[in-house]
Design a protein that fits this description.
This protein is an alpha/beta fold and 232 residues long. The protein is 47% helix and 16% strand. It has a seven-stranded parallel sheet with strand order 3-2-1-4-5-6-7, sandwiched between helices. The N and C termini lie far apart (35 Å).
């Protein structure tokens, strides 16, 4: 039985990841920021412990981890998306994207690594995006944050590997979550048609990959593209 900490666990990919780890008997804690009702529902359904915490707030993250007795697996899933042309992107929105998507990952890893170093083992799975691999028009800021997640993953794998800690990344493609709520049906259908396997992704598709990487003992520093082949 492992102790698993998942950020952004109240909905979408994060909630499904909570379900999959809990279903196999792990002790699961998940962080969330605003979705109190959804977090309560996930906690009640799975038996996981919900902790309200903005990952962009370093002090809040440290306080949250002080309530967790141990960490074997950390899943850095929390993230936000703000779209827009780069010359119209406000500095406030640019900073918020990096504070959550990149600095939030930094805060959580800093809090978890001491547990790993003490045991000389551990697993970190980060969540990037296909846009972190290839970039996207109208998504420059978001793409930049997700590219940073990939770079951090690869660097951390080298830094922490000698201490028995593996670090891997999942790069989802188009996934039907709340993040796509403002995308038109026509656009989603067009993306589906561009995907070689003929459908868009589900939270379960991504969560299954996260669980695999969390357990894969001879895999580190890798980016697993879970996108149906839309980016090859």
């Amino acid at each position: 039985m492992a102790t698993v900490v998942i950020t952004g666990g109240s909905r979408g990919i994060g909630a499904e990841t909570v379900r999959q780890f809990a279903a196999r008997g792990d002790r699961v804690y998940f962080l969330y920021e605003k979705q109190h009702e959804k977090a309560s529902e996930v906690a009640k359904e799975t038996g996981a412990v919900a902790i309200c915490c903005d990952v962009a707030d370093g002090a809040a993250v440290r306080a949250a981890f002080q309530t967790i007795p141990d960490v074997d697996i950390l899943v850095c899933n929390a993230g936000i998306s703000i779209s827009g042309l780069v010359h119209q992107m406000s500095e406030e929105n640019w900073d918020r994207l990096f504070d959550v998507n990149v600095k939030g990952m930094y805060h959580c890893i800093n809090a978890a690594v001491p547990y790993f170093l003490q045991k000389q083992r551990g697993s970190i799975v980060t969540v990037s995006s296909m846009w972190g691999q290839v970039g996207a028009s109208f998504e420059v800021a978001y793409s930049a944050t997700k590219g940073a997640v990939i770079a951090m993953t690869k660097a951390l794998a080298q830094e922490l590997g000698p201490s028995g800690v593996r670090v891997n990344c999942v790069a989802p493609g188009v996934v039907c979550t709340d993040m796509c709520a403002n995308v038109s049906e026509e656009t989603m259908e067009d993306l589906r048609q561009q995907t070689p396997i003929g459908r868009n992704g589900t939270p379960m598709d991504i969560a299954t990959a996260i669980v695999y990487l969390a357990d894969a003992e001879f895999v580190t520093g890798q980016v697993l593209a879970v996108n149906g082949g839309i980016v090859l």
